[in-house]
Predict the structure of 3-methyl-2-oxobutanoate hydroxymethyltransferase.
Amino acid sequence: RKAVTLPALQNMKDAGKKIAMLTCYDASFAALMDACAVDMLLVGDSMGNVLQGHATTLPVSIADIAYHTSCVARGNKSALLAADMPFGSYGTPESAYENAVKLMQAGAQLVKLEGGAWLCDTVRFLTERSIPVFAHLGLTPQSVHQLGGFKVQCKTTEGAERLLSDARALQEAGASMLLLEAIPASLGKSVSDALRIPTIGIGAGLDCSGQVLVMHDMLGVFPGKKARFVRNFMAGQTDIASAIRSYVEAVKDGSFPATEHCF
Ligand code: KIV
Ligand code: NA
């Protein structure tokens, strides 16, 4: 297939075609996901949980993400490749740029950062310097100690209004995409409708431009507590390629997420 690009994903949103994204951490899974037509791969700082066995994403370093990004880039041919900026790597625009360059040189095509309006200067600084930005709002796991746990966000009217204004500000600052995690499905819809750029949801309802899951969750290999938004796509399948294909199909035809996966 043709390489998936940011303009191609923008066209998918405009045409109402759903974007299927998965996290990925190594070359073999990257080759398999690419062959199964996953549109976008994310080298997530969820590696802190699923690869490294930590309780949070906070211990993940820029070197960890750069190493796994280089592994994924070697296995991937055509999926768009995003990499997470880990905790502590984007406190200022300058430090964000220095660290994002490492991920881009490892093979990332855009970088994901967690945060609202306070991040706008950094988003502008990166995009002006040719680094596309994927913003992340809602449940932002790097803020777990401020949030007091991994819980659904923006359940109040004020919270929903703040998220919507953060989303608009990030798009205005130049973000190419927006990830929405663990928010009411109705808010996922209003943000996706209000923005021009594609939104990718994880526990953010069916009306986002696309969906993402952590690979270990969708294959049923993560031993920890399963979040409401997770579906095990290995159930009823005999091989991993079939599970990945059934995930892509379910995202594309709108059968995932179902109401039981939403807030
Ligand atoms: O690190 C990660 O896996 C993420 C999720 C939202 C997919 O950021
Ligand atoms: Na992440």
